[in-house]
Amino acid sequence: MTHKLFRFSKSLPIVLLVALLGLSSCATSTKQTILPEYETAGFQSLRLDARVLNISEEWVMPMEPPYIEHTLSPNLSSMLVDWATRVLVPVGGSGEVVLNITQASVKMTALPRSERLVDLFSDKQEFMVRADIKAKLLWIQPVGGKQVIIDLSATASNTVKETATPNERDLIIREVMINTIDLIDEQAASEIKANKDLNRS
Fold first, then answer.
1. What is the pTM of this model?
2. 108 within a domain of the structure (yes/no)
């Protein structure tokens, strides 16, 4: 009996260690957040007096910091193209609408660090994420010799805390990109609806 108790007492520290490690791993596990899907179904279509929609991408990704759009999937340019094909709907018998994308950038830049002692113990913002879109919407209608040029531009930004996980950082980047597309949609809808020649809704 004494021998069995001795064996149990020797194994007890090992059992406790395994249990503590299990609790520690559960406490430190990071909950993964699924990135929001980019869906265009929620946008309202704009019926345009044109026969065809053409999209021209003049923006060339810099492929170097602070630009990060070349590392993203989908990138901001492809999101804008998806938006345009969903929203800008040609329904006329003649004419052309051209969306010329001149900028669709996403940048992540480091924020200046504070040297104050009190800030050393706070969760500071480490990066600024900024998305910029610039585009021109050109409408050419040969019937009646009509032409309209609409300048579209939008900027959205947010900051990333220094304690943010890679998943949290990716979530902020995606939200900034979606916010930029939403701003472009609002501007395009306002400009197009105000033009009675172009708008066929």
1. 0.80
2. yes
**Residue located via tokens 């395994």:** 18
The tens digit of pLDDT for each residue in 46-63 reads: 999 999 999 999 999 999
Q: Which residues contact 174 (CB under 8 A, 6 or more apart)?
A: 35, 36, 38
What is the C-alpha separation between 129 and 159, in angstroms, rounded? 6
Say how far apart CA 192 and CA 114 lie, in whole Å: 46
Domain that holds residue 112: 31-193
Instruction: Please report which confidence band the pLDDT of residue 27 belongs to, taking 50, 70 and 90 as the band edges.
Output: very low
Does residue 80 sit within a domain?
Answer: yes
Query: Does 43 fall in a domain?
Result: yes
Q: What Rg value do the Cα atoms of the chain yield, rounded?
A: 27
Domains held by the chain: number = 1
- Whichever domain contains 54, its CATH number is 3.30.160
Return the half-sphere exposure (C-beta side, CA atoms, 13 A cut-off) of residue 33: 13
**How many Å from the N-terminal Cα to the C-terminal Cα in the chain?**
90
Query: Does residue 69 fall inside a structural domain?
Result: yes
